[in-house]
Amino acid sequence: MDLNYNEEELAFRKEVQDFLAEKLPKRIADKVKNLQRLTKEDMVEWHGLLNDRGWLASGWPKEHGGAAFDAVQKNIFEEEACRAGAPRVVPFGVGMLAPVLMAFGSDEQCAHYLPRILDGTDWWCQGYSEPGAGSDLASLKTSAKRDGDHYIVNGQKTWTTLGQHADWIFCLVRTSTEGKPQQGISFLLIDMATPGIEVRPIILLDGEHEVNEIFFDDVKVPIGNLVGEENQGWTYAKYLLTHERTGTAGIGFSTEGLEQLKRIAKLQKKSGKPLAQDPYFAARMAKIEIDLAALRTTNLRVLQDAMSGAASPVDASMMKVKGTVIRQAINDLARRALGPHALPFVSEALDAGYNEPPIGPDYANPVASDYFNNRKLSIFAGSNEIQKNIISKLSGL
Amino acid sequence: MDFTHSDDRRMLADMAARFVREKYTIEKRHEFAASDEGFSREIWAEFAELGLIGAMFSEDVGGFGGSGFDLAVVFEELGKGLVVEPMLANLVAGKLIEHAGGPEQKMLLEKVIGGETLITFAHSEPDSHYDLAHVATKAEKTDKGYRLTGHKSAVLNGDSADLLIVSARISGDAGDEDGIALFLVNPRADGVSIRGCPTVDGGRVGEIALNGVEISDKVMLGDGTDCFAHIEKATAAGIVAISAEALGAMQVSTEMTLEYLKTRKQFGVIIGRFQVLQHRYAEMLIEIEQVRSSLINAAGQLDGGRELREWNVSALKNLVGRVGHLVAEECIQMHGGIGMTWEYALPHFAKRLTMIDHQFGDEDYHIERVIALSAA
Ligand SMILES: Cc1cc2nc3c(=O)[nH]c(=O)nc-3n(C[C@H](O)[C@H](O)[C@H](O)COP(=O)(O)OP(=O)(O)OC[C@H]3O[C@@H](n4cnc5c(N)ncnc54)[C@H](O)[C@@H]3O)c2cc1C
To answer: Rounded to whole angstroms, how far apart are CA atoms B70 and B86?
Structure first.
């Protein structure tokens, strides 16, 4: 048992800190820290800077241009990136599609798509969910029928995050209706510029355009865009779920969120004294800090297991549930800390360059809205109810 | 014991319910909320005509009721429609005038009840959090009256009021209950500047700067005594009202969720078949009934003695904070992605339920008060 980072890990942390200090544009970090809107250009710019350093694809092996960080390094990187206010790396291409291509795609597919993910040529989005297929993903209906050298795709995907920016979408599609629903699903790559695709925005409860509906009407997709074998898509999607373990706990976000919360609680006053000194509020904050300290170590334990190949799928579900609950609790407390100042909300102030003086304290405007937006954390990527079903099922219940 | 309302009050409730049901669609609500003033003057005029504003006040001042239960039945219905008209603002400010105003000042309420004059209570300040005694705004004595200097924040509908009731300190320090006076201030007077702003749950607030506003003696509300007691009492009315609003919003939220649990299918069955969701739905119903009881407790004590009133009102607001939070989060969660969308009504109810905890004191503020009042 040794709870300390070793020399190499400490040196690595320093390297990450130096990189962030030098390369992360202040303009972008300010937006992230002030919970302002990031444009597509901001995200692409940050991806580019990371890629120049060889760190965009932190988990990919070196041969594909990745950084091949081990689990502890990934964790250190995430902590430092969040602290510095770096945007999160958009996960769809780098974190979701790429591991599937490396494991199940052809050499040609890897050679074609992976470099384009790295250099920002292709922006990917994830087309799994459908109106009728959320938690029960295997019931998806979007169909791909063989017609010579093509699949003809018809149907609808929904909740597609940042699909409005996407050049490509990786989809789970139905190629067979025989056997169990899981057995007739394939993993297909679709160029968003293909005729017959329509993207419609869905506005979320905070008024933001973050997700989309995507309609497919006789969309012709070359058969070469199939990943792996036909009707094996479910296996690939599940592989991804169990292999994308790091980051699901969102420790970096929570750590930074807690720091921000403490700052707010020092500045907000209750009966003339800092709110941080109010026993009720202080107890709420301390409880989260206790939970987060435990989760940080749980996360490291899971990462260590993952490195030695001993992680159980239960771990991923546990980290998802606990990680999102803590993040949401931090958002909840930040909102509470503001008292009446949580009410005013000027949407335009979420754009950088908004020049009006703030209403109330300068950190107040986005806080309640951010709390509402992050209710999504317990819904997407397998809802927390589904994760608990998995945990109890794998435990033998 | 009798938990039924009088016929008159039932008619009042039915009328409010019908109005909301027939005229106040969620689309209209969003349209009103997005307008410059954040509400509809036409709807406000109809409220006046229907006697809904009058129902908030006693017959002494030209109203038709004004008891805790009158507030409760009307606001419960308003909560079901997520009504954005400035009822709460006018209620609290109106109660101050009803309780503390001199005879001439009370005449003002006729115009409030008639929907012609909009009033609001400019009290909360940047550093007050929810502390009612935290008034730092100064009222300095001058030859002709007073000079007001200070800052009021998150004033409900502060940008559309025709008249502000401003709390300011004549003596003592922020936090002292003594030394606070109330003044009727024209929002267009020299030295008053108001910035209006939408709220995250569809309402409007004003940030009000008072930069040496010269006012005459005559605009002091009443004789200037016992102001803190009046503030407490008017706030208690506000808490009963906003809690009833929350109760209405909780009912709609759970009804929508029930409907969804009964129709949404996953894994070949309606999701309402999953026991974990059944139990969580049941939990909400249990808690909402407790809110209704707590509301009855507080409404019944609204015109009673201070200690009982304040204990029950703080107990109510604490419970509403807890249950509102539960219902808001659970209803969104049980809907899945649909519960996150602007186009669907549910998340707007959830947002309002959440933000109700940010008005007139949150869970923590009121539990602290309950403890203090119990110890007293
Ligand atoms: C902001 C946001 C972004 C998203 N981005 C993407 C994306 O980029 N790509 C993509 O493909 N999808 C995306 N999703 C979709 C997301 O994965 C789904 O919302 C999620 O899988 C839940 O499905 P659903 O919304 O249909 O809810 P449902 O599955 O209908 O669930 C409704 C409720 O029932 C519960 N429930 C369902 N089944 C069970 C059960 N067996 N036992 C107990 N409870 C159950 C759920 O937990 C939930 O509380 C996104 C969603 C959101 C909100």
So the answer is: 17
